[in-house]
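Exam prep: given the inputs below (a chain plus FE2/S2 (inorganic) cluster), describe the expected output before reading on.
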Amino acid sequence: MQTVHIEFMVNGKEVALDVPAGATALQVIREMLGLKGSKEGCGIGECGACTVVVDGKAVNACLLLAAQLDGCRLLTVEGLADPAGLHPLQEKMIEHHAVQCGFCTPGVLMSSYALFAEKANPKREEIVAAVAGNLCRCTGYQQIITAIEAAVPGENR
Ligand code: FES
Ligand code: FES
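Solution:
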């Protein structure tokens, strides 16, 4: 099996791996790094369950080759909380009952995180657009959008 050597940052830690040349980032994140928060729903870029943040942008890890992570900064849902506690997005998702089965939740969080990184005070329609690629079969989306809106950095100062 042909492998590729990659070095990158995962949730603030340096990682060096030899990955199968054809492996997706999602396979490496889940199976080699053991970070199971990123989910595989469709595997073809349709559901957003695998969303992670690479160099500040939300991407579908199922569509990204692991080799493309070389030199990148990867953030997964496991890196959102810090020793001080949950990220405000996580707290608001709980507070607003935006989680049912939870399968979509990591992807929603990462899409929202990337939006906040790009824009300090996104409007509701920008939030809706940012998570449009994250399918949820349970909530009807209203609680998710409300929770993200409540976590807007400008609202928490
Ligand atoms: S698993 Fe990647 S978009 Fe569905
Ligand atoms: S909470 Fe079940 S898919 Fe969104």
